Amino acid sequence: MKKPLIVLITNIFIQSIFAQIGENSFDTTYPTQWKSRVNVTGIFPKQPPKKLESFTISGYYRFITNVRKMDDPYILQQDLNKQLPLNIFVGDDGQIPQLSLNLAGNVNPNTRFSTDFFLWTPMMGSGMPENVKGLNLGVSLYGSHSTSFGSFDVQCGGINWYALTPFTFHTNQGYNRYSLFERNPWDPQTKHIEDRYQSFYTQGALNQDLRWGRQAFQGIILEGNDLPHGFSGVIMFGKTQLNGGMAPLPNQSYGGKIKKAYQNGYVSINTFNNQTYSDSLLSHGIGFNMHTLSFEHTISEIKISGEVGMGRYFSPTLQRGFGEAISVKINTPEKYTFVPLQFHFFQISPKAINNSSVFWNSSIREGNVANSQSNDQLVLAPFASAMTPVGQLTNNRKGFELNSEFSVGQFKFNIGYSNAQEIENISSVITYGHPINSLALSRFWRWGFPSNVGPYGNISKVYRSVFESLNLTDVNSKNVPLYKKYFNNLEVNAKYKTKIMRKDLFVNYLGSYSSVQNEFSAMTVFTEKAYLRTYYHQLEAYYKLTNKLVWTNYIGWERIIANYSTIVNPVTSRPKNQEGWGFATGLDIEMSKGAGLYLRQRWMNYTDTSFPLDHYSGWESTIEIKIFF
């Protein structure tokens, strides 16, 4: 009797120590003879459960604050209330997260996941209600899985930054002709403090984070890549910044593409659509459709690429049908054209609308406001006939561009030229920017993107910038322009590198010479024949004092002149005659690996001699700390 009792006690003791597992989950690395004992004694020796193959946490923290003191305060509203002379602000009023965390891991060699957390503290002074923005932009989840058939990716939730094609879902990336002095929220931390200026000089471009050239999308995005026979595809369904909000009525965006790659290029069928309802019976649909074919082909080192398609806007009160959207680029190497050259032809119908694409809507005002739940300016781009930088497209316009980059000794040049005209004479308004003090001026209006503000109600704020509206007077009784408008623009970016006391010095010049008039001109018009002439000059110098310190400097001047076919001031009887200056200096300081301190001090001055209320002067100081980990 003792032996069975000992066996029973032994079995109970063994089973209390070893984890019980089923036959199907037995690890095949253990000796075969153990398998018969799996249901009795478990695995011996005991093994920890399998874990992720890898897991990482990365992200950044960004602190920014600025102090503005106006000696001559700008008048912000039409009721002539002036802004406070002193303004102190902590945080980013552009709703850029202060803390971003990315958690990523590999389940196995073929399966990967990650998720983002974006944290933002707005400090608007509204108490508890504002805390809902603490986890601003929400949580995003990414996953990818590779098989012998192809790789599959999914992005869902939160805000996902994505680009489909230029005419469907994208933002304009331009031609790398911009100022480096003012830092952007998406600027990364470089390995060496001077790398930002070195790469801009040598490569003509900067490394940017995932938001660069992409639109914000909330919903689900499915991708299939490396599929058989060179195929790939995308399906996306959700919301953009234009149809978000908490309204109970359905409003969504959806699109996708099917792409076929071959040896010398690719061809892709693409679509993006927006649908919003304006009534509870869901009978009044408002939105737009865009369907395109994009392509790229290289032959004898000449690359031909582009996108052609059709787009439309629809609403219960406006049905104009589809219009064309065409963009074709031809890139030739130096051996054919002496310098690398890109020729770009474009034509976008006034009927084609897509507020999530690279081109602005300048033809249908209703299309700017119908798809948003916000009370602010509902499209963060100018409506009307916009004077745009080279590379920025609008609808109701056709023309061509030439762009080239080349070197002459230590000088590097990036030059662009555009010549365009309206397809229909629709708008009697011209819009233009103020790039010299644009960022500082946009901070005059916090929390939102108001339109028709300023002393004369002709300023509108866009993201980190502003634009001004100018009314024409050569119009008919219905306020329709008598003539089509023609646009010319010449941009020059010249870069130079030298050494002073064996320390690197980078000097950049950015100039823009633009005009809009009522007749064709091969070059920018510099006379009174132009409705409006704008001249922008920006000169920057970056001097590397030590391995951890760069001294930054900036000077900018803008001159804007209108003729007498535009609105004049009733007191002075003169059209717009504006001049603005910006002087700035600062320091880039490398605090440690992955951490930088950036100081900026700007003095600004602006006046319009024809419109007496339109003037300001003062200074602004900015402190930014950015840490990557």
Domains (count): 2
* DSSP strand content: over 45%
Ends distance:
68 Å
Tally the helices.
6
CATH class of the largest domain: Mainly Beta
Q: What fraction, in percent, of the residue positions are helical?
A: under 10%
For the residues shown, what is the average pLDDT? 84
Derived from helix and strand composition plus strand pairing, the structural class reads mainly beta
Q: How large, in whole angstroms, is the Cα Rg?
A: 29 Å
Instruction: Please tell me the CATH architecture of the largest domain by its name.
Output: Beta Barrel
Indicate the multimeric state. Answer: single chain
List unreliable stretches of 5+ residues: 5-10, 12-40, 131-135, 367-381
Number of strands: 30
**Cα shape:** globular
Largest sheet: 22 strands, antiparallel, barrel
Q: Kindly report the CATH topology of the largest domain.
A: Maltoporin, Chain A
From the structure above, extract its key features.
629 residues; Maltoporin, Chain A; 6 helices; globular; 22-stranded antiparallel barrel; 4-stranded mixed sheet; 49% strand; mainly beta
Break the fold down into its secondary structure elements and pairings.
Elements: H1 2-17, H2 38-41, E1 54-72, E2 86-90, E3 99-108, E4 111-119, E5 139-146, E6 151-162, H3 195-203, E7 215-225, E8 231-239, E9 251-262, E10 265-277, E11 285-299, E12 302-315, E13 318-319, E14 323-332, H4 334-337, E15 341-348, E16 359-360, H5 366-369, E17 385-386, E18 393-394, E19 397-408, E20 411-422, E21 429-433, H6 438-442, E22 459-462, E23 465-471, E24 486-500, E25 503-517, E26 530-546, E27 549-562, E28 577-592, E29 595-608, E30 615-628
Parallel strand pairs: 16-18, 17-21
Antiparallel strand pairs: 1-2, 1-3, 1-30, 3-4, 4-5, 5-6, 6-7, 7-8, 8-9, 9-10, 10-11, 11-12, 12-13, 12-14, 14-15, 15-19, 19-20, 20-24, 21-23, 22-23, 24-25, 25-26, 26-27, 27-28, 28-29, 29-30
